[in-house]
Design goal:
2 copies of one chain form a homodimer. By secondary structure, chain A is α+β, with helices and mostly antiparallel strands. Chain A has 2 domains: 77 residues, Winged helix-like DNA-binding domain superfamily/Winged helix DNA-binding domain (Arc Repressor Mutant, subunit A, Orthogonal Bundle); 52 residues, Dna Ligase, domain 1 (2-Layer Sandwich). In chain A, 39% of the residues lie in helices and 22% in strands. In chain A, the strands form 2 sheets. The first copy, chain A, has a 3-stranded mixed beta sheet with strand order 4-3-5. A two-stranded antiparallel sheet of chain A has the order 1-2. In chain A, strand 3 and strand 4 form a beta hairpin. Chain A is flat and about 45 Å long. Strand 5 of chain A pairs antiparallel with strand 5 of chain B, so a sheet runs across the interface. The first copy, chain A, binds a DNA duplex through helix 2 and helix 4.
DNA sequence: TAATTTAATTGTAACCATTACAATCCGGTA
DNA sequence: TACCGGATTGTAATGGTTACAATTAAATTA
């Protein structure tokens, strides 16, 4: 349990969200797996610890955490909602070949267009798609 | 039929994609409705012209046009895939209250992070969420 | 501690956008 | 006209997500 995790716990206490065993494990999983997991992945991995765990609980918990602003919902493409612990500004790069999602640093705040001065911006997302270095080299090997 | 539409036709000819009556109407609809429509919206509107039109045809056509690079798939949130004719670089702002998607100009090319120098970037997306001016003023009216 | 109330979890069924697939239709060609 | 290949259509299947009611756990009160 690193400092980040403690901070999350504290934030939940402030926002009056009770932390059950299941919710704790889900939150713990997200802090330890920054791989932008799907509900399916979370479900498979946590079932080992909590055999009775239900997917509905995972959906409920992620919704609560997202509403509390602790978790970010990533929907680069349909049929594959992924979740991420909210950290500092970064963009997401999805490899079209292997499907892996990479984080990359980007100063999103620097790109507030003046055209949106009359809008209230709550959330900013930068999604790139393409090929990751590993898949690029694989393609070259085949040639 | 403006110049843009003619250009699209030409591009399709180059890419050897035949233009049936249905495909022509769908493409025409997209060039005339820059509201980022869903398949449902396209279906409802075009049914007036083509009573026998099927949703499968719309899905097929949009997939072909997207693969050809003429149409951009917008997935800001799950369960609501939207489509857009590809134009110059711009970001999308979705109002969390009324659901409208607004375009705003942004120089996406200027924000290529050096960390992605070993990646091949095929597609860049900038999605913002928040409240549009109209919904903001409505909230103020209620107060 | 026991009883009571409230919230969280679970499993099943429903939902709904998208896709798969087979049958039909249409346009061009010999 | 007959044929062929691609486009369209309608229906059924898919699968991630949500709704809902029952069960369980936790918190509160006496």
């Amino acid at each position: 349990m690193d400092a980040t995790f403690e901070n999350l716990m504290q934030e939940l206490k402030i926002k009056n969200i009770s932390l059950s065993h299941q919710r704790l494990k889900i939150l713990e999983y997200l802090t330890q797996n920054h791989c932008h997991p799907t509900v399916e992945q979370i479900f498979i991995d946590l079932q080992k610890d909590i055999p009775t765990l239900s997917k509905t609980t995972i959906y409920n918990t992620l919704r609560i955490l997202a509403e509390a602003g602790l978790v970010k919902v990533i929907t680069i493409e349909d049929k594959e909602t992924r979740y991420d612990i909210v950290t500092e500004n970064h963009g997401h790069f999805k490899c079209e070949s292997c499907g892996t999602i990479f984080d990359f640093p980007i100063d999103i705040d620097s790109l507030i267009p003046e055209d949106l001065s009359t809008f209230k911006i709550n959330d900013k997302n930068v999604y790139f798609k393409g090929l990751c270095p590993r898949c690029l080299s694989n393609i070259n090997d085949i040639k």
